From TrEMBL:
Domain of life: Bacteria
Organism: Klebsiella michiganensis
Pfam families tied to this protein: TerL_nuclease
GO molecular function, one term: endonuclease activity
Name of the featured protein: Terminase
InterPro entries: TerL_nuclease, Terminase_largesu-like
Terminase large subunit-like endonuclease domain ranges (all copies): 1-136
Length: 158
């Protein structure tokens, strides 16, 4: 993590706990001036943080990390990747997290992201699958590139 921080690709916070105040401040700065239609979030252990964002007027939509919400969105991302229509900034942290995603289809061919160890973080891909899930629910069709479409919904690259 320290190497990515030194390269300006990751911001470290002090201590061993998540600094929700810093994340909130960074997020509000990041979306300032954007025409944000909605922000999908996983409600698991996010009550206080989501309430804090709602108090700031951030439009929030709960998107639990379930097979129902992620299977179709993961398949859509996969299709875009193999079709050469998925473009991202080649961010080293996202690349590492994507390499940590493992998938095992269930008997109905549904898929869900897993990781092999607790150290194998997949938060970035989970955020991507959440965003894609909301795009699909809202009837969106991918534009020339997924990046262009997500940016039209206020989602920017890492």
């Amino acid at each position: 993590y320290r190497k990515w921080a030194e390269l300006g690709k990751l911001e470290l916070t002090d201590g061993d706990v998540i600094d929700h105040a810093q994340i909130k401040a960074d997020f509000l700065e990041w979306i300032n001036g954007e025409n944000l239609k909605e922000t999908g979030f996983d409600p698991w252990s996010a009550t206080q943080f989501s309430l804090a964002l709602a108090e700031e007027g951030v439009p929030l939509v709960e998107v639990p990390q379930t097979v129902r919400n992620f299977s179709e969105s993961m398949k859509e991302v996969e299709s875009l990747v193999y079709g050469g229509r998925f473009h991202h900034s080649n961010h080293p942290v996202m690349n590492w997290m994507m390499s940590n995603v493992t998938v095992k289809p269930d008997k109905n061919d549904n898929i869900f992201p897993n990781k092999s160890t607790p150290e194998a973080k997949i938060d970035g891909p989970a955020a991507l699958f959440t965003a894609m899930s909301r795009m699909l629910v809202n009837g969106g069709e991918p534009e020339a590139s997924l990046s262009d479409h997500l940016e039209s919904y206020g989602v920017r690259s890492l």
